[in-house]
Design a protein that fits this description.
The chain is mainly alpha-helical. 61% of the residues lie in helices and 11% in strands.
């Protein structure tokens, strides 16, 4: 990184505070993400199944799952037997510890 950029970041960190509400939202997001990961470690699950097992609303599960998909933490496994929902699973290399 350019020395000027790193100096700018250091100055901004000293000036701008992260709001407590944002910190709490991030804590909740990370907690819910962890619950979803634990659920998916047992095997592929659909969004409604994940929501039921974790107690998180389907909307939140979709939001978190899509962010995990974007950052290559999960992948689509297959479509369920009734062709209604995709099943998601933890990416193989993350599951095997080869990250």
């Amino acid at each position: 990184m350019d020395k000027n950029k790193s100096e700018t970041f250091k100055k901004l960190r000293g000036v701008k505070e992260v709001p407590d509400s944002l910190k709490e939202e991030m804590k909740l997001f990370n907690k819910q993400k962890g619950l979803i990961k634990k659920t998916l470690l047992t095997g592929p699950e659909s969004i409604p199944m994940i929501a039921e097992k974790t107690g998180i609303s389907s909307d939140e599960v979709i939001y978190i799952l899509m962010s995990m998909l974007k950052f290559d933490e999960v992948e689509v496994d297959k479509v369920d037997d009734m062709d209604e929902f995709f099943l998601y699973r933890i990416k193989s290399e993350i599951k095997n510890g080869e990250n």
